[in-house]
Amino acid sequence: MIQENSRLLGLLSEEQKADLISLEKQFAHHLEYTIGKNKYTVKNEDIYKALGHTVRDFLIDRLNLTDERYRKTNPKKVYYFSLEFLMGKTLSNALINLGLYDIVSEMIKGFGLELAEVLEFEMDAGLGNGGLGRLAACFLDSMATLNVPGFGYGIRYDYGIFNQIIANGQQVEMPDHWDADGVPYEVIRADITYSIGFYGYTETKISGRGRTEHDWIPAETVLAAAHDCPIPGFNTSTVNYLRLWTAKSSEEFNLDYFNHGDYMRAVQDKSISENISKVLYPNDTTEQGKELRLKQQYFMVAASLQDILLRHKQAEGTYKNLAEKVAIQLNDTHPSIGIAELMRVLVDQENWSWEDAWDLTTKIFAYTNHTVLPEALETWKVSLFERLLPRHLEIIYEINFRFLEWAKAKNVLSPDEISEVSVIQEGAEKRIRMANLAVIGSHQVNGVAALHSELITTTIFKSFYKLFPEKFNNKTNGITPRRWLIQSNPSLSYLIQKKLGPKFATNLSELKNLEAFVKDKEFKADWIKVKKTNKDRLAKLIKSETGISIDPNSLIDTQIKRFHEYKRQLLNVLRVIAVYRRIKENPNITVTPRTVIFGGKAAPGYYMAKLIIKLINNVAQVVNHDPDVADRLKLVFLPNYRVSLAESIIPGSNLSEQISTAGTEASGTSNMKFMLNGALTVGTLDGANVEMLEEVGEENIYIFGLKTPEVFALKEKGYRPQDYLEANSELKRVLLMIRENFFSPSEHGIFNPIYDSLVYQDSYLLLADFAAYDSIQDRIASDFLNEDSWTEKSILNVARVGKFSSDRTIREYAEQIWKVPLLEAPSPKTKYGFPLVQS
């Protein structure tokens, strides 16, 4: 299939050419025998499916070899528990990590197609909401690349995060059946199934040895079936896996009902059981939704622990050395019920003493916190636990009683502080604080940026910090350069590779060497050319997705992330309105052309976030159709933000908006992705922005606004947003435009809640920061006109991004928390390394 004159052939050894012929044969076999097509019936999507199965063969070969290596060396393993894995598209990433991208690209050209066209047939695996799930995906890539024996555990939701469409400016949620056409690279493990219990009651008895024993008799049993997604490391033979559980009914249907003609009742139990893995984040505004969410959490951890414990027992014959061989990382509080579940297994099923079981449990679990907002810390009604997981409630009460007795004996906490650290939140309706359970049951607790890790010890966990300061540490988040540079920005990757070679793919600190070329005219010209190519591509995407024509030479200013009031998308659009007013009042004003892009989804039940999306779209309708504005200002909302869309937006952006209220964002990772792709950052001193400032230097980043201590001080003395309105007449007029229906002439009053929230509450201090934000945006607009200086800042941002690799983060977890090795792995037999041909 590869043409004889292909330039790729000249780069391959004879052995590699033989591998290529083998690859082509595998592909042809899958196209004919797996997909069932011939040259007369083949379609483009069949090419994608056959390619998926071909790559799967490579992955399974290395997966089996990796498993064999682990069995022989018997290293300690780490298991990453997360209810979210935002994997995006997997096939392109696998081709790059396996070193097959260029070869496969040439092979596909033999069909008259481009590989990029074929890969478009893959659906994003949106099994997560945002940063937390995408972080988990980056971590899996880094673990495999560093040869860490690490595996992910989660749920294989039938429907991922909803597809977002915009109708009349409003978000409308549509189901995301991401696997409707099958997942060719997935490995279904039909032989790995576990029973998971719910409801029922507990029995207590005294054994013959005088020991109190507890039995949980569940009233409902659901089966957890395993599906594996192989995770290949870059330029290594290591392939780990992400194991996702899907719920199956323990009975296909009730034969008695069926025989009596009641088919619906016959299959009802099956349908209810399988709802557990039906949808990511069921709407938890109802009691039924809350119950389903807690079911999902227990279902995932119970299945995962059974899997881990069974394999450990088979290999070791005992659980006594479990902590020496197993580390479990809890990605936020969602899997923290695993602490109670492991205690149940050890105490009830293995007959361990409470003290020995607790000692082992706390050595195994570690907990990553992702929020400093008290309202975001997960709690559950005791009554729900009592009904759904009665034995676990008893265990949690026992954990809490013993812990509080220990805490009181330490004599360092006041009665109020003792109440703060209790797992049980007292009140009219008692609740279980899952974050408190996670802290108590883990040997290490980490934040995800230096500022965040400091804040959790002085705010939400300050009383815990008094009890055991040694538990708390920081692990600043990172991103994988394989996905967020090599895959998403091949042109920039190629330019960097020409100067530095390929080592930066696995050692991002190598980018520091780009500083030597920051004054190199030829290199800067190439850098500008790459950015222009990416901006042109983004302009075409915007036109095809929204119908809006933008000037690709304008300052492309991007804010893409989950919609939440603390992330302050509203501050951004307020300034857009202010600039629009200035142009209308003085049509001859000189304005640096700017395209402001938003992307992101709001939780279905989050009214205010959805209203902000509506405002952005309504403002865009006015701004983009006003001839006085022309191409000087464009406002774009790109619908259905997802991983693959981010891969197109980020390389084409000049400016990254990271403008959360100081002290509210745990870390952020989109800030790192933009930095890696040469965009400059405008942001508050929040989350990882603090460390980005330290790395890149204050002259190469745009920091504005109140700092965290100033935010706390302002709120403490009594923040009055009206004071800022009275001091800023332009801001006052902007808000009046919103209140007086300028952007909603046929929907009077629709945006009044936004006006009222800002004027009378303004919880996230938008009005307090508006003047500083407006001022620094003016400076950015001026700086952008100096292309030479802007390009140098862009190069320095990339050169100094090395710290923010997820490889660095995983090394720190492995060495300091998990105590797992970075193993030596043999180089892959088929080793082509970096993509050889420029995309």
Structure description:
This protein has 839 residues and is of the alpha/beta class. The protein has a domain at 494-805: Glycogen Phosphorylase B (Rossmann fold, 3-Layer(aba) Sandwich). Helix content is 48%, strand content 15%. The strands form six sheets. It has a nine-stranded mixed sheet. α13 crosses α14 (390-410) and α22 packs parallel to α23 (607-623). It is globular. The model has no long low-confidence stretch (mean pLDDT 93).
Short description:
Helices cover 48% and strands 15% of the residues.
Write the layout of secondary structure elements.
Blueprint lengths: L13 H21 L9 H30 L3 E5 L3 E4 L2 H8 L2 H9 L5 H5 L5 E3 L3 H15 L4 E6 L7 E5 L2 E5 L12 E12 L2 E6 L5 E6 L2 E13 L6 E11 L5 H5 L3 H12 L12 H30 L5 H4 E6 L5 H13 L4 H11 E4 L10 E3 H7 L1 H21 L4 H7 L2 E2 L5 E3 H8 L2 E4 L2 H9 L3 H6 L4 E3 L6 H7 L2 H11 L20 H26 L8 E6 L8 H17 L8 E6 L7 H17 L9 E6 L4 H7 L5 E4 L11 H7 L3 E4 L5 H8 L5 E2 L4 H10 L3 H7 L1 H11 L12 H9 L5 H19 L2 H13 L6 H13 L21
Parallel strand pairs: 1-4, 1-12, 4-11, 12-13, 13-17, 17-18, 19-20, 19-22, 20-21, 22-23, 23-24
Antiparallel strand pairs: 2-3, 5-6, 7-10, 8-9, 10-11, 14-16, 15-16
Helix pairs in contact: 1-2, 2-3, 3-19, 6-33, 9-11, 11-12, 11-14, 13-14, 22-23, 22-29, 22-31
GO molecular function, one term: pyridoxal phosphate binding
Keywords: Carbohydrate metabolism, Glycogen metabolism, Glycosyltransferase, Pyridoxal phosphate, Transferase
Cofactor: pyridoxal 5'-phosphate
